[in-house]
Each structure stands twice: as C-alpha cells, then as structure tokens.
Amino acid sequence: MSYQKLIEVAYQDWEENPDFAKACENVITKISSKEADAFRHLTFSSIKRLSESSLDINDIILLTQYLSGDRISLLTTGFEYIGQYGNFILDEENSYYAYYENSIAHPVTGEIIKDVKNDVFMFFTLNEGATK
Question: Of 10, 32, 48, 112, which has the most beta carbons under 10 Å away?
Fold first, then answer.
C-alpha cells in the first residue's frame, strides 16, 4: 500500500476521532519523507514526537498498536535487553522466554540471565514491506 493510501485508511478508520487520524497522518508522512534506516529503533516517545500531537500516553500506545496492526502494518515490534550484561536485540526465542520465563540467554555467551522483566524494552522498526 502506498503511504497516501495508508493515510486514507487511517482517516476512514478514525473518522470519529480526527485528532487521532491526524496523528496517524503525521507519523506516516514523516516516515515517508526519510530513508527506512532512520526508523530502525522507534520508542513510544519518538512516535509521540513524530505524531506532533498532544495525545496522552494511552493514546500513543493505541496509535502504535494501530500502526503495527494488520490494517496498516507500518511498524513491527522488537525487544531489547539493556542491563548489567550489556545491551542487545532479542531474537524471537529470547523474546518468548523474557515474557514467559523472565529469563533470556545471552546471545554471545549463552549464559542465562534471570529476572529480566525490568531490563527488556519494546521498540518499533519500519516494516519495509508495508508500502510495496
């Protein structure tokens, strides 16, 4: 889908909430104006800045879910460990274990790192296939 079509879909979906639709448009427009590499590691704070809105944190989470969901699929979700054992992006298996077991394996040493729930952070990247 083209960026323009993504904006049109957002306005259709959020017809009853024009502020939310405008925030979607702002994010999509900003993303469309730069190279994909500029959006390799987005946080809720950076998405809020891109939205140029006064949406509260709950609405920013909803906005991010919407932009990551099946309807738009502009963003994909990732997880990163930032703690005493360094920082690294979690693969799918480590993401599963972080959520369900509260532990992960260090990607280099294989050492099990326990009690990681406060050291794993969600981030978002551009789904480059979304606008093909």
Answer: 10
